[in-house]
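Note to self: keep these together.
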Amino acid sequence: MKTTLFALTICFAGALSLHAADAPLPHKAPELAFKIPGQGDKLLSQYRGKVVALELIFTTCPHCQHASELMTKLQREYGPRGFQSLDVAFNDNADLKVDDFVRDFHVGFPVGWTERDSVLGFLGLSVLDRFVVPQLQLIDRKGIVHYATPPNGVGAEAANYENAMKEETIRQRIEELLAIGASSSAHKPVASAKAALAVKN
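Structure:
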């Protein structure tokens, strides 16, 4: 898929851009509180012990909808090995739209919702920063983020974002994190220090 076409499918979630968050990787995942319909309040830290693919989404974003279909497939394949897909929506009225999102797109893993400010805090962004959704982070069994999509996935970051969201890239990263045993060092990077989810062209 060409970058120009790919960019059209990405949903913008921010206003005018200043500076996107650029936390060094790997780093400890900040806490994130959210609600899952029918299950109540949840914390990201409750999923420790699993390799987590956390997607921060808009339920109304076509690319997020497509990404959820891929994550459902990966959940079926990798779930028995300790993998957990997780979507958290933060668009307007997400609390009213999550159930329809799960039903309409046959999502086979938990989908919750939270407030926009919570997601901005988690990502280290301000209300003035421009970013795209979905934002994907891959987190190891001990709560360490090893891979993250570039927040502003357009312009100079478009190629990195596109590569980061390819199925083969995501699979490779999940396999790497699943290979790290629970007793391994949580802070040992599994790729270069400059890596995000993205791979070079």
